[in-house]
Specification:
Mean pLDDT: 88
Number of domains: 2
Structural class: alpha/beta
Radius of gyration: 23 Å
Number of helices: 10
Low-confidence stretches: 1-6
Largest sheet: 6 strands, mixed
Strand order of the largest sheet: 5-6-7-3-8-9
Helix content: 25-40%
Order of helices and strands: EEEHEHEHHHEHEHEEHEEEHEH
Distance between the termini: 24 Å
Shape: globular
Number of strands: 13
CATH topology of the largest domain: Rossmann fold
Length: 324
Amino acid sequence: MGRGGGGDVLIELDGVRKVFDVRRRTGLLRREKRQVKAVDGISFTVARGEVVGYIGPNGAGKSTTIKMLTGILTPSGGRLRVAGIDPARERTRLAHRIGVVFGQRTTLWWDLPLKDSYGLMRRMYRIPDDRYRRNLGRCVEQLDLGDLLDVPVRQLSLGQRMRGDIAAALLHDPEVLYLDEPTIGLDVVSKAKVRGFLRELNAELGTTVLLTTHDLQDIEQLCERVMVIDHGRLMYDGPLGGLHTVGEGERTLVVDLETEHPPIDLPGTRTVKVEGPRQWLAFPAAESAAPLVAAVAERYPLLDLSVREPDIEDVIARMYAGRG
């Protein structure tokens, strides 16, 4: 079974599978049925209070896993428990223990002001008035929602709506929060607000978070542990630094010089591209960028620089290559 964080186990999967029957046309009057294994024998545990990244390319099985953890989908095999509850059998009971945010869907009422959606949530979950006021106040303050409460959801920007959805998922004090692409399409400011809020939520309340994302900065800023899924199977479970080591990932230092210059030559780097005064240097993702930045600033006429993280798909591709 995959590793957990120790302590009180809140999420447990043991050999969980999900198979879909897919039919496709093979002739004028003929259809062929085949089975697609969306999740193929996954096992792991998540301890209370952990913040875990659950990553992989599109179609890897991430969202299918989340849907089984919430009871939306029933596993084809294996054992699954959340807070001791079988999600598929006791979905209503589980709903009071979990919160869910799907980045490309909303749980808010489209034509109602944000505060009315929250009022409906209070009635649905039967949240006591004092707890509702406390939780709403915390979310409004930390997610900067004060000026948005009277605005219909359909008039909110994507970043504003996402912050509103996160608040809605937390009004009933869930023990577990599932976040499926919570920062997709958000600007830098909105991402920073969401990440900061989630860090404080975990630190203050010990909320357990399972996060799926294509943004490695989400993982780096929020998670101590990361799991990689691809083709329905768990490929890696451990610290983010270990993922870079296994996948031999590279980060890229983008350097803007005052004038055009021959390719920068520094130990431990390779020049990926030179375009006028701008150069791209690749270096191992597990290494600190600080010594490299200092060396560039000392030896070259520097105007600006930035560090780009490797794509998750690239890291996974390198993992495959290393196992070949």
